[in-house]
Amino acid sequence: MTSTITIDANAAATPPPAQARAAGGAARRGVGFAGILRSERIKLSSLRSIKLTLLITVVVGIGLSAMIGLLFSSNMRDAAAGVSEPIFGGGDDGLQYYLLTVSTFAAPFLALIFGVLGVLTISSEYSSGMILSTLTAVPKRTPVFAGKAVVLGIVAALTALVLVAGGLIVAVLCYPESASQLATSVVISGALGTIAYLVLISLFAFGVSVLLRSTAGGIAVVAGVTFVLPIAFQMLAMTGWEWVPTVGEYLPAQLGTIMSQGAIELASGPGFAVATVAMVIWVAVVLVPASVVFKRRDAQ
Length: 300
Known about the structure:
Layout: H1 9-13, H2 17-30, H3 33-46, H4 48-80, H5 91-104, H6 107-128, H7 130-137, H8 141-174, H9 185-212, H10 215-236, H11 243-248, H12 252-260, H13 272-296
Helix pairs in contact: 3-8, 4-5, 4-6, 4-8, 5-8, 5-9, 6-9, 6-10, 8-9, 9-10, 9-12, 9-13, 12-13
């Protein structure tokens, strides 16, 4: 007597629904926010364009600080010898102004490069199609958006820290007498304000790039906001309209200048704290809709 046993290969290969759900849940749990951050760090550091951008930023920034430091330190020595009038004035205030000028001089020019960094963080994935793989691995888009923004902020902060710290070192090497003012509240707040401004510019550019999904478009908008708008408002000021100077003080470029001056009392216009809050608002106005669009819009 012969017995026949039939085996359903499809049933054997397919786990029960409960096991499938458990496996899927485990896979999703395996990609936590720490894993997203690690993945975004690897992707950002593997891009040749990002590496080149950071290298250019550091070299150009410290190079400009060295040039300005050599120029202004010569004036400081001549003023101390009574040969010429000091550019920054005398006393501790003059030394603080010298330190901040040398260490933050390049920030307005490098703001565009930090903007390019923010644009490339997301636009490179859209142009290469990698965004599809990213969203397949992590279907929930909000953690992906937050992870990209956090990694970008950390990279921008570290780069800005190297620039500002390098500029302060250059300033002290060029004029050692200024070392006595390094730990003052004005110098520290000015250095931190410059770092914060560059980080916020990169996040602003990141949000613009998410909205536009275009490298060229993102860079054009950032360049327009940081360079073209101030020029346009300078021309509008010739009309005599009273609102033009007031609005112009709250443009990102002017806010960055105020933040780099440190916590000092200004005769008019927004102070250090107000400028910082205003710059955060600029970023929020772009990042909030960008996060909504990133979550709802099709990835292709």
